[in-house]
Amino acid sequence: MRSREYGPDLTPPWKRQQPAPEVAAERDLVVEEAATGFCGAVVRCERTAEGFTVTLEDRFGKHRVFPLVPRGFLLEGRVVTLVRPAAAAPAAPRGPGRTASGSVAVPGARARVARESRIYVEGRHDAELVERVWGDDLRIEGVVVEYLEGVDDLPAIVEAFAPGPGRRLGVLVDHLLPGTKEHRIAARVTGEHVLVVGHPYVDVWQAVKPAGLGFAAWPEVPRGEVWKEGVCRRLGWPVDTPAAWKRILASVDGWKDLEPELLGRVEELIDFVTLPGGGGGA
User: Which strand (E) or helix (H) includes residue 46?
Assistant: First the structure.
């Protein structure tokens, strides 16, 4: 005769291991692998010959792959079972799409022939960030963005560009504050056909909102220390600025991930070089 208090395995109910709650392994979910203690954000889930796996990335950018097994992970200290995310449902019909800058997207639009007018930015990172957010808009407007590797030679660069009617030049400068070297250089070249604007940050990295990278504010780096390297050290990242920039840029999906001090200045430059008379197709 089977007892009502015990199951078929004669284990008291209070001693049976309760099933762990199932949690979808959505991208960027931070969990800890129970057996090894490896903590990281979900990068992807995929099917392998041995079954489904999840790839985690720790704060140093290291990747490790783990099987999706019951009770295999900790989420905020609780044992959970990670499961594959549900397939995305087909998108419902909606209104006009938006570009990363927030502009109304123009499906099927072809890039315009490049204008004579240009936008110059200080460095490669500035150019890559502008491309990521405003790239679609710039192609439709026919605006080319080039980088300078610093502004010390800006007066000679502007002279060589030969701005004039139909050939405007917009320049974006880092750390453009009154009394700075950058401010003095900008004053020398600004004119009817040249607009120099800037943001207050030491580097364009700071124009990316830190919340998207998992911290509250960019760290303070003392004068005399290489700023980007100092940032990496204080965030616990490897001192590898190309890798750090790749990580920062990956956190930017659109204009909402950038500080207003940069957004306004880039929009101002685009308006300046695309005003009537700002340079037609070449």
Answer: strand 39-48
Which range, of 6-15, 50-59, 196-205, 273-282, averages the lowest pLDDT? 6-15
Mean pLDDT of 102-110: 54
Task: Kindly report the length of the chain.
Answer: 282
CB 224 within 8 A of CB 230: no
pTM for the structure as a whole:
0.60
Give me the residues paired with residue 78 across strands.
75
Whether 188 contacts 155, CB under 8 Å: yes
